[in-house]
Structure formats: C-alpha cells, structure tokens
Predict the structure of Polymer-forming cytoskeletal protein.
Amino acid sequence: MFKNKKSKIDPNMTDTLIGEGTHFEGKIRSEAGIRIEGHLTGDIECTGDVTIGENGSARSNVRARHVILAGQVTGNVIASGKLTIKATGKLLGNLTAQELSIESGGIFQGSSKMETGKEIAATDETDSANSVSPAADAASTAVLKTW
C-alpha cells in the first residue's frame, strides 16, 4: 500500500511550514528549508534555508545556511551563507554570517561577526562537541498549538 521511497532531501526546497496562527514550542532540526509564518519558541537547526515571514516571529537561536528575516527573531542567528533582514525584519540578538544585507527600515540590535563558511563550520564542530546529547535533550518536547 505504501511505497518506501528513498528520496534525497533538497536543502533548496522548503518542506516545513509553521503557518500563520500557529504557535510552536520546541527544537526543530531539518535538512530542508523551513518557513515560519506563525510563532516559534525554541531553537532551529537547519541545513537548508530559514525564512521568517512578515507575520512570523521566533524566540529562538537560529542556525542555517541562509536566513531571510521579514518578521522578528529574538535570539542569535548563525548563517553559514547570507543573512538578509528585509525592510519589515527585526533581529534582536547577535549574528554570525558570511554575508549580511539589511534593507532600509530593517532593524538589527546586537553585535555582528562576519566569518567565512569554513570558520562558521569550525564553530559548529566546537559547539557540537560541547552540546548536550540528543538523548539528554529528549526531556524537551514539542508542543503544537493552533488558535
């Protein structure tokens, strides 16, 4: 009845959407892109791209390839590629990126650090060595609320 398809995950495609009117609490890890149009509380680790839409907000530390911010993030952002803060975007936290673009009207409050992709990857490896194992992190659960 169900076929087991082993398809390669494309980091250029968005496969996870937190829709408008949705509140999500918990840590998200994804190999493909993520788009937030609702509200998220919890960290995001993404091999692909993360987009926070105009009505989206995240109280979160975000780690992704590219980050497009048209809504609000309260927390730190690490982009191994480019971080774009749109005219409606607001980042309240520190950032590390290889490339940074802030449109007129965009807000950034924090400190910035520009690094090459290799330096960011080395930081990732150091952070991974010092992080809590997934088994120890099992106590944190995800709660999906829709109002």
User: Anything to note?
Assistant: The first helix runs from residue 117 to 130. The first strand starts at residue 14 and ends at 18. The radius of gyration is 15 Å.
